[in-house]
Amino acid sequence: MSRIRYRDIEFNTERQALIVRANRIIDEYGGARLSARQIYYRFIADAALPDSWADAEYNRREGLPPDTKNTVKNYSRLASLLVDARYAGLIDWDAIEDRNREPLSARDWPTGHAAVVEATDAFRLDRWRGQHFYVELWVEKAALAGVLGPIADDYHVVLMVNRGYSSASAMRESAERIRGRVAGVGPRPVVLYVGDHDPSGEDMVRDVRARLVEFGCPDWLDVRKLALTTEQVEEHHPPPNPAKVTDSRAAKYIERHGEHSWEVDALPPRALDALVRRTLNTYIDKPVMDLVITEENKIKARLRQLATQVL
Hints:
Layout lengths: L12 H16 L7 H10 L10 H7 L9 H16 L24 H11 L10 E7 L5 H11 L2 E4 L6 H14 L6 E7 L4 H16 L7 E6 L2 H7 L3 E3 L7 H8 L2 E3 L6 H14 L3 H22 L4
Parallel strand pairs: 1-2, 1-3, 3-4
Antiparallel strand pairs: 5-6
């Protein structure tokens, strides 16, 4: 926990209640670092913003229903409250991160022993060795990396953060990585995609597959939209947004899905976690992976023994 007070700030009853709610949302994610936008979408999904935040005049100017609370204004308002709450020591500083301003620093270790111990803890064999599938997990938004990162680590799969339509360089590098894993008659490549249910998000599966194949991935590459799907919208009822009519794909999307779109950030974290783990399990030959893990643990035991001999 890193609740450190830097400023004395008074909060009225309404703002205090929002801070309590924000901490509950943070706890739901089990220690993953969140963005302010993720927390905001959980407020919207749970209908947890106060009625006073439905600004009818603002909504009229923006062409929105008079009682809606899902607005740019309210996102900024909540983000400002989260900043104040951290300055006041009421929300953990480490719970919220700005993924666009992350420092890069060189690694170092206090001793050689510490380096060997860390390398031992991190050591893994290729747990997908001998599997029938090679699976990667791709996500449209960096905001969900904190939720999906631990899953990708548990299952030893690549987590690729696209940030919308990916660059040509990133797609080519991804194609080369996948080709290297499935060369010849290797495992079938699978990309599980997590993105918004909106004009671009629905088109992303087509775009990802087409560009990976263009850069040399085999034609039997399977790119699957894991979330957010129409069925998940109907099950979890995330808050709707107007479909982006400025998107060149909007007309086709609206014809098929109507005038609303939905953000994958609003999917409950436990639901997303369970969905991804359940899906990954369907691609794994567990006895084969267990043999790899057994071999891995034997190597780790020898490395730990070696670590005792290093200063």
